[in-house]
Specification:
about 220 residues; alpha/beta; Methyltransferase, Methionine Synthase (B12-binding Domains), Chain A, domain 1; Rossmann fold; 2 domains; 10 helices; about 55% helix; globular
């Protein structure tokens, strides 16, 4: 009989198939979806700690993120779809519209962020890659998004990120925060891109959101 600690360990090890099997077994054994999400969050915290100590490599993070995504997609989301009213409180932390900026087709990092955001309780609308600035704003308006997340790994495309905030102001959407990430934006200041925050990595983004939620101190 598996327990939540087994789920945590397998996610950290990047064992996607086994993680899904364990999560399904936990559900069948009477564990709740919030309990499973708690396990995923513990795995996330463990990976975050490794990042701080430089005890990780990119492959490890990618495999763990894939395992989390499989559990979220195949267990958590499916269970929520069966009983949406029962899980109405999940996804209430806020709405994130996210995508890779126009001119850039890289999305591995963005996909990791999507998985982690969903794991910790955000509703995420993933626009995909090569997305023009206006599409971020149109979707954010339609979805009443609290946040726009924009990724860029190509320096030539990063300049387009500046347009998002300007378009938000035109729509009087002053409360929608714009958060940028990716290799192309790490060496610039947030003022240069006209954004509210530049995230060094997915874990820094999660910590930033926790501060906004009032769950942790700055």
């Amino acid at each position: 009989m598996h327990n939540v600690a087994d789920l945590v360990e397998n996610v950290i090890q990047g064992n996607a198939k086994e993680s899904v099997i364990i999560a399904r077994g936990l559900l069948a054994g009477g564990h709740s979806i919030p309990r499973i999400v708690e396990g995923l969050t513990r795995a996330l915290d463990s990976l975050d700690a490794k990042c701080h100590l430089n005890q990780f490599n990119l492959l490890e993070i990618l495999l763990a993120a894939r395992a989390m995504k499989e559990v979220v997609d195949e267990v958590v989301c499916q269970e929520i779809e069966k009983s949406p009213t029962e899980f109405g409180s999940m996804g209430k932390k806020g709405v994130f519209v996210i995508g890779t900026i126009q001119g850039d087709i890289h999305d591995l990092g963005k996909n990791i962020v999507v998985t982690l955001l969903r794991t910790v309780g955000y509703k995420v609308i993933d626009l995909g890659k090569d997305i023009p600035p206006a599409q971020f704003v149109v979707t954010a308006k339609e979805e009443k998004a609290n946040f726009i997340g924009v990724s860029s790994l190509i320096f030539s495309s990063a300049a387009s990120i500046r347009e998002i905030k300007r378009l938000l102001l035109e729509e009087n959407m002053t409360n929608t925060m714009v958060i940028a990430g990716g290799a192309a934006v790490k060496q610039v200041e947030k003022e240069d891109l006209n954004v509210d925050m530049i995230a060094e990595d997915a874990f820094e983004l999660i910590r930033f959101l926790q501060v906004l939620e009032g769950n942790v101190a700055e």
